[in-house]
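Entry 14. Ran structure prediction on the chain below.
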Amino acid sequence: MSTTLTKPEMSAHGEWVSEPLRRDVGAELPDWYQQIQADSWHNFLETPEPVRKDENWRFADLKKIRFERINPVGSLNEQGSFVERFRSNRVDSAIGHCLFANGHLIESDFSQLPDDVIACEINEALANHSELVKEHFMQDPARLGSQKFAALHGASTLCGVFIHVPKNVVIDGVIEIHHVNSGENTGIFPHTLIVAEANSKVSVFENFETAGKGDSPITVGMVDLDARDGGKIQYASFQNNGPNARHMQINASRVGRDSAVKNCFVNLGSMWVRNEAVSRMMEPGADSQMFSANLANGTEEYDQRTLQLHEAQHTTSDLLYKNALYDDARTIFSGLIQVGKGAHHTDSYQTCRNMLGSDTAEANAMPGLEIDADQVKCSHGSTSGPISEEEIFYLMARGIPAERARRMISLGFLNEVIQRLEGDDVKEFIFGKVEAKFRAI
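Output, structure tokens:
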């Protein structure tokens, strides 16, 4: 397929890139996907950068996303050392895994998965499972402010994994995806697509880190989760990039009849993080759980936007976001429960809690409800405050030093989210990383 890219009038804020960030993936990509790339590039050029008056960017520090330039990635040096580090740090229950370095797949092993499960690099899936991918790929538009980022993602060469679990297949263990990124303002575009057919089950753990503290990659990732007719998906994203990195991830969940999707973000690094998560409960019995545990210090900013969208009767959802902030760190949470017409007997909850570990930390929270149905149970709320002095005094009275007491309280605060995940080794891995960052603050 031959596609001509035309360049419409630029936005007033100028260019981030002068051409799509693409590279040869060695595969013949289908026509429908090439058209998505062309349309996405056109949309990227036409879409202006976020501005303060946009409600979806309220309270955000827009200076941190004034990208003067996003550079293409190169190969990562000393790949062997990262392979060894990855192998030594995998979770024990990993039944399949892959490692990407600067967007290039350098190791993968899915041989232990059941034979009828499809698990492969996303561009391989586009080439070899075109129609199956097309049915689920980027089916929902960006709704929460990230339209320009989503368009750049759609126009660029992707790295990531496609996982399709057929009917009645339960995968014991976790599939682990690891990304190591480096360079200065280099753009990486991970895309994870997970489909759980009727009565199937899968758990995926995706991990992001930089090769060194001085690296400043720009990650624009998307995740599509699609569970159908009793299917179950757990997806956990763990991000521990360096202090100069910028990280955006846009998650879209489609939850079918009697299905369940558990979606979790854990952030420990990056100067700027934007997490957007939309969960659509599309048929009766659908259940969505959305969790996030975040530890920010320095001048880090974590921007969180969520939408729990109930489209059918007898659906449930639960959201718990927790942020621990130190130094001059900032968080923004904006969440909405939306109960559509006819979505009666909805049961939905939304909670955001912020623990302020310094006088200069800042937490902004905007929970919301929109209800257009009858016989629903919905609640939302947000709290922000310092660590309780009474709790610190209680621990000090038992011989625990004040700083250790603060760390223990903060760990317990975030651990409530971590413990809602399935898989003891995944929880232990995340808890250990959170504990290590607390020791460094």
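The radius of gyration is 21 Å. Will compare against last week's run tomorrow.
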